[in-house]
Structures are given as structure tokens and as C-alpha cells.
Amino acid sequence: MSAAAAVLAAGALAGTVAVALGAAWLGGSYVVAAVVVTLVAVFAYGWPRVLSLPDPWHLTWLIFGAGAAATLAALLTGLPSPMQWMPICLGVGVLGVFGAQLLRGTGAERRLASTMAGLFGLVVATFASGWVGVVGFGPLGASALVTWVGGGAAALATVITLVLARRRLPAGGLTAAIALGAAPILASGTVLYFAQRLILQ
Question: Which keywords appear in this protein's UniProt record, sorted alphabetically (predicted)?
């Protein structure tokens, strides 16, 4: 897949994800949580492979585990503090990444790259739980429009960034497009949550 095609695919995916999250908002917290966990699974699989990291499966499971746990915690906790468990899930994931690299040994290939990729992936995956928190504001006056606007802005930012950096994109084909397209939308969940919380206060 060429860089231009990857940009188009990632942009289309980003837009689709934004629309899906906005539509899922209408179905309530459980539907949004299911969409988020699915997207986290896709991102967790694709991200280590975009970077062609050796032994990508341990990062995939760590990223997915932390993201799914944070999303489930946000779903079950609810207002007034649905995000209180997110930093804990992130912290446990960070310990897991460092522990995994220690187990790989000092001579393991690309340990630093694997560590940095794992940390970035954990931030994206755990921040995705913010989308569940956003839905919780519905009874307080928030609307699906906020989700669509926030997701649309993140999708637009994704496309602009990918267009500007298209010549530096890693060669990962469809997997790269999926991971790169989903990452900004997922990570914007927590940002949108706190922005909406400030607006409603």
C-alpha cells in the first residue's frame, strides 16, 4: 500500500470511528464500551506491527488488557468519577511493559523501541476509556453532538497530520492505516471527557 493510499485509508477509518462512537452514544454506555474495547483490540494488534517490532504479541496483550480494564472500570464506576481507575490501569500496564522487557533480557533486539511503543500504546488504549465517561454526562445535559464534534475534530486532525507526514509513514499497509487511524480517536476520549466536564460544571 502506497503512502497516499495509507493516508486515505487511515482518514476514512478515523471518520468511520468518529461516526461509530457518536452513533453508539445513542445506545448508551454499554454499547459505547463495546465499540471502544473492539477498537482497542484492533489498535493493540496493529500498533506493534506498524513498527515491525520483534515479538509483538506481548505488547498486544498488555495494551489490550490495560485498555479493556480501563474501559470496564469506567463503565462500572460511573459518575461522579468514572475515570478514577484509568491511571491505575495505565500504571499497571507500564509495569507490565518494563517487566516484559526485563524478561526479554539485555541482548534482546530493539528493547528501547519496544518499551517506547508499549508506553505510547498504553496511553492511547487507556485514554480511550474516556469515551465511556463522556456518555455518562448524558443525564447532565450532554448530547451526542458533543461526541460527534469531538470525534470529527480528532478525525480531521488525523487526516491533516497523515497528509503532512505521509512520506515518513512506516510501511505497514492496511495494518498501519488501521492503527494510525484509530489512535488519535481513541486517545481523544479522555481529553473530550475532561473538556466536557469543565463545560458542564
Answer: Membrane, Transmembrane, Transmembrane helix
